[in-house]
Fold each of these.
Amino acid sequence: MRIEHTIPSGLLENRRVRVLVVGAGGTGSAVVMGLPYLDQAMRAWGHRGGLDVSVMDADVVTETNCIRQPFSISDIGLNKATVLINRINMFWGTQWKAFPMHLDKRIQTRGNESSPDIVIGCVDTRAARVAIESAVRSTFNMTMYWLDVGNNASSGQYVLGQPLNARNHRRAERLRTVSELYPEIVDVEAGEDPLPSCSAIEALDRQEPFINQTLAASALAMLARLFRHGKLRHHGAFFNAATGHMSAIPIDPVLWRRTRRRRKRV
């Protein structure tokens, strides 16, 4: 039974939408570089506050990063989040913030005035997703949406969910998160996928160019529809670069239950 998701009241009312991007690598940097365009579009649509963006990542730029990510040789050794935010603030005149640190379960944002409205996770390990899940599902957290964007060598997904916390309560129409639909994505006992190689050639072999940008643009397009029209009929998608196929994830409680049952049997 497919249904339509309606944006909760209050998110777009007379204030900026607070966004925290966790991870500033291949996908995270593509998301961050696209957010100013979403900010400008929201202002044109009458949401004068636009976005208030923070980026969190402890990693520094390496030579290999300059192949697939928007960094240059002069950025090597500098923190990724700081480089991106400084660049955006200088070009767009924004006052967005960078946090050169890892997110972990000890970081709990409390209160409606400080919690991010949307957490965009662009991480490549199960442990990092567990940290995000723990943070957004904490007792006092007021995060409204968790958007997970991830990929492997030639495919990937983005999933928008409403984590159970002080703001989101149990109800049939609540958007299920990526960890609820696909629990293996936070199963640290399953081990981690190989990390990117220090060799540029090997890194390109392990991950095809432009898959990060494709997923980031598609995820941001979904958010744009949510902010402009106030509703969605899908809350994510799977993309396969080898076939060029994009498969949307419908908002369907029956499908959610079937997905979880199938995953439990695997």
Amino acid sequence: MRKRPETSRSSNSQQRPPKQPPYANSTTNLSSSMKSIRSGSVWIILSAVIIYSCYSVHYYQFENLPSPLTAEQAGKRGFSEIQAIKHVKALTDFGPHPVGSDYLDLALQVYLFTYSFILFYFILSSLFFCSMFWRKWRT
């Protein structure tokens, strides 16, 4: 093995700074550059997981579940999708459906009362602590 020629170490201006990797410079550190390199693989893995999830849902829905039955195939006690849709349409044909009830109004009043009580307590306690600190600061 050859020896390196001796250089004078007395002058600091002749010394070269140590070599840095090409992706690292004085404004960025190594960890942030590694994050940018890693982000591509993260996106690839994330897209693969999403594609696999979509395929799993499709496979389960169209290849594992049975096809819907008609009223004749289901019989008297079986479940028929067609009959269920007819039943839902018959229920919705009664007319307008007003939203709300007495219990919903009562629950709303209880919620608003509780919320206003909590808000009042918070404001009162914050005013108390502010006045306490004001007195302490003033003296």
